[in-house]
Write a structure and sequence with these properties.
The structure holds 2 protein chains of 2 kinds. By secondary structure, chain A is mainly α. Helix content of chain A is 77%, strand content 3%. A two-stranded antiparallel sheet of chain A has the order 1-2. Chain B is 74% helix and 1% strand. The chains are: A mainly alpha, B mainly alpha.
């Protein structure tokens, strides 16, 4: 196995293991253990790539094999600073999340978790846009099954809704992708769907570009979600099982942002620059809107869904702010938010399973029963609201700088809104966890060693990234600089 | 002599097979249904062997031309469709093995008539002349009329057969009328000679040809169930035995396309401006009506029937694109193969489930199948994904080709419309998956479960493998050396080229 094949191995190992487990009749404990070992192997391989990665702007570990040669579609994968960081994030989050989901799952649950991992890593690493679309759609199917089978409440409706919502968006993008491919064919006389080829298109008219841009933007805005394409999140997040919510919020939503940077910026730099102020505005507006919506929620899962959407709007605003602060900060917040939200959703999942409640008014008195749980919860919460010393602080600060540089008023507004987010989160924490419960105390065990082991790396990362961010930023900074200097500047001149 | 005979062998074998089965079915009580399945599939396999003998060659010949006088033609194009039709027929027979055993009305005549209709369809693929095409079409159609009425247990069958017979014969008259008009204008009914006439004459002289083409187009649209001739589909598909429904939706459609693609490509392509606008409207409405019909159904079989109209719409999109770019013919042919596999799998699986449980008919009846029969449910999921065009199945690649060619021909807005229909289709396909997996089973736990290890399930599994292979192709080529889906495209390209060999 050469160095380049490691990426393919990372992508397909979980799926292959899942298929083998599917046809075998292994015991459920063994299924879980094998799945866990698989993710650990993936983690080790990703570590190897992370260490061997040179901090440069170009693609590394590239594999480029013909797939459908008559249409120039290639199996083309590779990693740059931007995707590497998210790859590392996924590789760390998934095995540790397994530790928190350890007990009481069925075989199908673990198989779907493995399949989702293949979907998300494939989406992240593909550089041919048809291949990207391939993984982008495929990753939805295990999500569909995991919510529908293992969810609660009005799960079937939620599942169908989220599927049709996201599928409709991506199908629109599909037409745009085909249009790009056809334009490339008409301009150069041969087919190609590789992202670096498609950036060289010159014959597209302004209106064509605008429509294509909007098609891509819709697909990614639904996934992220950006206002007003957010209506699927509350139902889905509240009905989905813990593992599903965790993957949706902390990994798949980030892939929407990633795709904006990977494809939309290089394809349409001029449109991107032209409309950036709109998107920053929508981002900041969404942040406020979702913040207020979160304040109103009694269901903690729904509250986190909105707060997550609020943060993602901030990330989107950062991406569209067109400067180094904003984009670096957005990338940083992707990691910080993935860890914090992922942790919070997993902990809420535990809480829900133990006590049977997930609404604030029914909870209370958790701190006494489960001090370690409360401690972990607090750390995740602090990182989520961006308390100094945590990685959330660094990233929110960077983004607010970025937005400020883009537009002073927006900067002020976003700085104030971050406070709103802090307030409702802490208020929830106080009511649901710390305050004594009215009525009988709830049954709640504290975290087990396994779960603590799972969470400790996250806590370390939270503080390490919050106190000493340089080594992390160094890995992706060249890529971001490349984007800003080589692509956005060109777009601005056009 | 012999080498000429080889070209004729597939079609002759099917005809002999049909006649043998006819005599065999005279002694119905002597033979079980298994024997009929064996004999008919044996003949089809032999015919398939003869057809594959020329697989990959580029040729156009007219064997025994002094007898046939240029009315039938043997080329790579026809051979491609022969292989598709024969494999489709074979798969229908084998997948339906269980269903046929469980229903007493399946007797020897069924297979005899099925082979006769296949004979007609193959003849249609070879037809190089309008009258011959009409005769072939009617051989195929009349056989199918009988097949539709086979289900004596179904009270809807009289409606189905009567509707289809009357409307089908009526529309067949249009084909004849169109042929007569074209003959009046050009003095010939031979396809290559018509194209010479069209190319060498100014537009004013072509009025009768235009009207004639419009008439023939009516027949085409009726047979593939496009708007405004779609109204028969649901009732006929409902009343027919499900195997016949599958046969009509996939195999018969391929046969229809085989002739009309040939006629359009070698003849009428220069007239495309004439039908373009009409076809655009027809395509849009076909997609809309098909989606509407499919959404509103509660019976899975009817949903599949409604959705087959939507798939017809996608293929019409390819036909429209033909005018601007000949390569969209490849995409239509690929789509036909993709739809053949996915629809056969889906219909076949439903037939298997119905045969097994006798009750699984509506969406609700499929609740809990994922727990009871995990493998069947997984296979069904694969076919639903393929029909919905989800990546990693052949349906996705087929949609990719059709939409790419449509956009390449400059019909991006039509592609957007088709993609909306696709988004809607996700609802009715995924609903079935949701039923299978998201609800607990309603059936008693102590219902005796028959084994799933039988020919029909193995064939369905085989089709599912093909569906997956078609979608992934050589993407996993660095793990296992398997041929790419490019291979199919190359074959298709070769077939279309053979049309233009003079």
């Amino acid at each position: 196995m050469g160095a380049a094949d490691i990426l393919s191995f990372i992508i397909f190992l979980p799926a292959v293991v899942a298929f083998i487990l599917m046809i075998s009749t292994t015991k459920i404990e063994d299924v879980r253990n094998i799945a866990f070992i698989t993710t650990i192997i993936t983690l080790i391989l990703v570590m190897k790539i992370y260490l061997n990665f040179e901090p440069k702007a170009e693609m590394q570990f590239v594999t480029n094999i013909e797939w459908i040669s008559s249409y120039g579609i290639n199996y083309y994968i590779g990693v740059d600073g931007f995707s590497l960081t998210i790859l590392m994030l996924i590789a760390i989050l998934i095995p540790t999340s397994y530790l928190l989901l350890w007990e009481g799952r069925t075989k199908g649950y673990w198989l779907n978790m493995l399949l989702i991992q293949t979907g998300v890593t494939g989406t992240l690493l593909s550089l041919d846009i048809i291949l990207f679309y391939f993984f982008w759609e495929t990753m939805l199917l295990p999500v569909f099954l995991i919510i529908g089978i293992f969810g609660s409440g009005n799960k079937v409706f939620s599942t169908i809704k989220v599927t049709i919502y996201t599928m409709a968006g991506s199908l629109l993008m599909f037409v745009a992708i085909l249009y790009l491919g056809v334009s490339f064919f008409n301009e150069y006389g041969h087919w190609s769907f590789q992202y670096n080829d498609l950036t060289t298109l010159t014959h597209l008219g302004y209106n064509e570009k605008l429509f294509l841009f909007l098609a891509f933007a819709t697909a990614f805005a639904i996934k992220i979600p950006i206002f007003p394409f957010h209506t699927w999140i509350t139902g889905t997040y509240s009905d989905a099982p813990t593992g599903g919510v965790f993957l949706l919020s902390s990994i798949m939503a980030k892939l929407g942002v990633y795709a904006v940077v990977r494809f939309m910026i290089p394809f349409f730099p001029d449109i991107f620059v032209e409309f950036s102020s709109w998107f920053v505005f929508i981002g900041v507006f969404g942040m406020i809107y979702f913040g207020i919506a979160a304040l109103m929620q009694d269901d903690i899962k729904k509250m986190f869904a909105y707060s997550s959407a609020s943060h993602l709007s901030l990330i989107a605003a950062g991406v569209f702010s067109l400067n180094s602060y904003g984009i670096n900060g957005a990338l940083y917040l992707i990691i910080a938010h993935a860890i914090a939200t992922g942790g919070l959703f997993l902990l809420i999942g535990l809480l829900h399973e133990q006590t049977g409640f997930k609404t604030i008014k029914d909870l209370g008195g958790i701190a006494k029963k489960a001090p370690i749980f409360t401690f972990m919860f607090a750390i995740m919460l602090f990182s989520n609201v961006g308390l100094p010393g945590t990685n959330g602080f660094v990233s929110e600060l960077l983004i607010i700088f970025g937005i400020y540089e883009f537009n002073h008023t927006m900067g002020y507004i976003s700085a104030v809104t971050v406070l709103v987010a802090a307030s409702f989160m802490l208020w929830m924490f106080q009511r649901a966890i710390l305050q004594e419960r009215v009525g009988a105390p709830l049954q709640m065990r504290d975290l087990r060693i396994k779960e603590i082991v799972g969470l400790v790396p996250w806590v370390i990362i939270i503080f390490l990234m919050g106190i000493y961010p340089d080594p992390f930023i160094d890995k992706f900074e060249p890529t971001v600089t490349h984007y800003i200097n080589d692509i956005l500047k060109i777009g601005a001149i056009k | 002599m012999i080498d000429q005979l080889i070209y004729l062998m597939p079609i002759i074998t099917v005809l002999i097979g049909a006649i043998v089965l006819m005599f065999q079915s005279m002694y119905d009580e002597k033979y079980s249904i298994k024997d009929f399945i064996l004999v008919s599939s044996l003949f089809l396999i032999i015919a398939l062997g003869f057809a594959i003998y020329h697989f990959g060659d580029l040729f156009t010949t007219r064997p025994f031309n002094d007898i046939f006088n240029n009315v039938i033609i043997f080329d790579t194009f026809a051979n491609f469709f022969n292989i598709a039709l024969l494999s489709g027929g074979l798969l229908i027979i084998l997948i339906g093995e269980y269903y046929a055993k469980e229903h007493s009305y399946f007797r020897g005549e069924f297979y005899c008539i099925l082979l006769f209709s296949l004979f007609g369809m193959m003849l249609l693929a070879h037809a190089n002349e309008l009258i011959t095409a009409y005769i072939a079409l009617e051989i195929a159609s009349f056989s199918v009329y009988i097949l539709v009425g086979f289900d004596t247990e179904n009270s809807k069958r009289v409606e189905a057969i009567f509707k289809y017979l009357v409307l089908g014969s009526f529309i067949g008259a249009f084909f004849l009328l169109g042929t007569v008009l074209i003959y009046g204008a050009t003095g010939t009914t031979n396809i290559s000679e018509i194209s010479q006439f069209i190319n060498s004459n100014p537009n004013e002289k072509l009025l009768l040809v235009y009207i004639g083409v419009a008439m023939i187009l009516f027949t085409f649209l009726f047979k593939i169930a496009a708007f405004p001739f779609q109204s028969w589909v649901l009732d006929v598909y409902r009343g027919a035995p499900i195997l016949v429904t599958a046969f009509m939706a996939s195999v018969f459609k391929i046969a229809i396309f085989s002739f009309f693609l040939r006629a359009i490509l070698s003849d009428f392509i220069t007239l495309n401006t004439f039908w373009e606008n009409a076809l655009i409207v027809i395509t849009v409405i076909t997609l809309a009506i098909g989606s509407w019909l499919a959404i509103t159904q509660d019976i899975v079989k009817r949903m599949l029937a409604g959705s087959s109209i939507v798939h017809t719409g996608y293929m019409l999109l390819g036909i429209i694109a033909l005018g601007q770019n000949i390569e969209s013919a490849y995409s239509i042919m690929f789509y036909l193969i993709a739809y053949l596999l996915s629809a056969l799998g889906a219909f076949g699986l439903v037939s298997h489930v119905i045969a097994d449980t006798k009750v699984r008919i509506t969406y609700d009846d499929f609740k809990g199948l994922g727990q009871e029969r995990p493998y069947l449910a997984a296979l069904m999921t694969i076919f639903m994904f393929s029909l919905a065009g989800i990546p990693s199945t052949i349906g996705f690649i087929a949609k990719f080709y059709v939409f790419t060619e449509a956009i390449n021909a400059g019909y991006a807005y039509l592609a957007v419309f088709a993609i909306i229909a696709t988004a809607i289709s996700i609802y009715y396909y995924f609903r079935l998956i949701a039923m299978m997996y998201f609800y607990p089973s309603f059936a008693d736990a102590n219902v005796s479960k028959s084994s799933d290890a039988r020919i029909s399930t193995f064939m369905i599994g085989f089709v599912a493998l093909l569906v997956i292979w078609g979608g992934i192709g050589s993407a996993i080529g660095f793990f296992f050396p398997i041929p790419s889906i490019d291979a199919i495209l190359d074959v298709v390209e070769l077939s279309v080229q053979s049309l233009f060999i003079k």
